[in-house]
Recover the amino acids of this structure.
């Protein structure tokens, strides 16, 4: 299975890759517009009695000045519109199918928002420590809805770190990213750091085992990213590890919000 482990989406060619992949500027601006509807629905979801009974559920996290920083599992409460249509977009699904070598199934839709001045950092982690998908047959497509770079909290990847496989994590006690690679281990990982410079409509695709994180956004510009996560239709999950992860997630949320 071949992955572009962090790179801007490129058209796959025999023997190599070439060319950047984008969604239209109209679509990226449309996502920002629809984001406001998602925020309202997320707030309503929080007040729902059924939601309050689910201790592991946290659909969004906010900054210290009460701005949305992350919104998760959007497909569970936002059922139509550009967000859902884009997750089903042929060009994205075809790309995912080439990489996964199987039919791609949407597993999650999220917004990762870093508001100017107060956007929170994300500790270094691997997505598959959360997902626990066997053979790592999954991927994330990260679509920039604003400029994103090192200066405003853009993603940092450790190049080729996916070759390590999934390594051990510890509790982060961070909002929106409950597990992290131990900080003392990061300096020992001698991988080159890469900060993609993105404009609205640019896309990144990354392997679920590539190590990545981001700094807080202390700039004067918001950083807005929309993410669609796909898994292979025939992929399997490690249910024991999923159960362990949910327990750790519950502990993380209890520590933050109680």
């Amino acid at each position: 299975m071949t992955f572009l482990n962090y790179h801007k989406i490129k058209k796959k060619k025999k023997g190599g890759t070439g060319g950047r992949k984008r969604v239209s500027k109209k679509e990226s601006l449309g996502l920002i517009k629809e984001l406001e509807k998602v925020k309202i629905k997320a707030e309503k979801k929080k007040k729902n009695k059924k939601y309050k009974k689910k201790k592991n559920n946290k659909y969004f996290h906010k900054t210290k000045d009460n701005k949305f920083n992350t919104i998760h599992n959007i497909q569970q409460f936002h059922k139509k519109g550009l967000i859902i249509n884009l997750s089903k977009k042929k060009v994205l699904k075809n790309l995912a199918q080439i990489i996964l070598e199987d039919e791609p199934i949407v597993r999650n839709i999220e917004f990762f928002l870093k508001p100017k001045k107060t956007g929170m950092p994300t500790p270094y982690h691997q997505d598959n420590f959360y997902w626990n998908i066997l053979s790592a047959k999954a991927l994330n497509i990260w679509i920039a809805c604003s400029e994103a770079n090192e200066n405003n909290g853009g993603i940092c990847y450790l190049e080729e770190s996916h070759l390590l496989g999934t390594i051990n994590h510890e509790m982060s006690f961070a909002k929106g990213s409950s597990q992290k690679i131990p900080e003392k281990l990061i300096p020992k990982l001698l991988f080159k750091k890469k900060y993609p410079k993105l404009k609205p409509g640019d896309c990144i695709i990354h392997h679920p085992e590539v190590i990545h994180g981001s700094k807080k956004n202390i700039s004067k510009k918001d950083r807005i990213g929309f993410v669609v996560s796909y898994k292979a239709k025939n992929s399997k999950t490690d249910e024991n590890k999923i159960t362990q992860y949910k327990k750790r997630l519950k502990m993380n949320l209890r520590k933050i919000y109680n």
Summary: The chain has one domain: 10-257.
